[in-house]
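Homework-ish question, so no full write-ups if that breaks the rules, but can someone show me the predicted structure for this set?
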Amino acid sequence: MNSEFENHMQRQPMRDVPPQWRARIMAAAQPKPAPWREWLWPCPQAWAALGAAWVVICVLHFTTPDEPRLAGNSHSETPQTFAILQEQTVIMAQLLGSIDGDEQPAALPVGPKPRSEMARRQLFG
Amino acid sequence: MSSAPNIERLYDDHAAALFAFLLNLLRNDADTQDVMQELFVRLARRPALLDDVRDERGFLLRLGHNLAIDLMRRRSTRDRNYDQLAREPMALFAKSADPDEQMFREKLAEALGELPPDQRAVVHLKLWEKLTFEAIAGTLGISLNTAASRYRYGLDKLRERLRPIYDEIQ
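A: Not a homework solution, just the prediction itself:
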């Protein structure tokens, strides 16, 4: 049994909930999309295009051979090319020599001689 | 149990009681809103929490009480002294056109702020939620005797503090 004092306190009405709280709290309580969806949401088409471009890049990367074809060919042709170039140089030197007179064409440097041969020449004359 | 409409219905049915209880405990509008928001967000994320609940009001008050206690513990060790905050004047009751009643309400709010939070919670649930001691004990997770004794101590302090003004306006 409540006393009169308790009854008097009980009759004092509490403040009401501020009305604007309802909208805020309900908005917060709404289920939110997954974080990755939120991140992609501003421009999903752009992200899709970027993803497609990466797929194309990956497909091209895995379907092409490791060594480019041109590089392989040029590597195999290098001695032949060098021989042709050397031959042309000799011909050019002969032609120039015939114009200039009796000058013999200078021997063309074929490339550095092996060090072992140079060393043997120095040792044995 | 579908979430969105149920949350709105729960809010409309129980927000006023939760607000008054939490405001009396926390003595601060911003913290009260934080706790209420946390409570409804939890219910929205896990609607199954209410599946076997018979007394919705009691369940929500208990959840709100637990969240408020957690907040008070976190804040009291960090940046706020809740004992000090509880003593600061704040609008707990509706305004009254009668100056005597208005003064009584202000003094009552102050006197409630001077009670320890444990006693304040019991006094609130007894006087303004009109719960039995058994229901209060269930809501706060305490024994029946503890609920009754906390109410007695709290009421004695309020009576002592408010008797002069109460006698004056009678």
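Now go work out the reasoning yourself. Hint: Residues 69-100 of chain A form the longest helix (32 residues).
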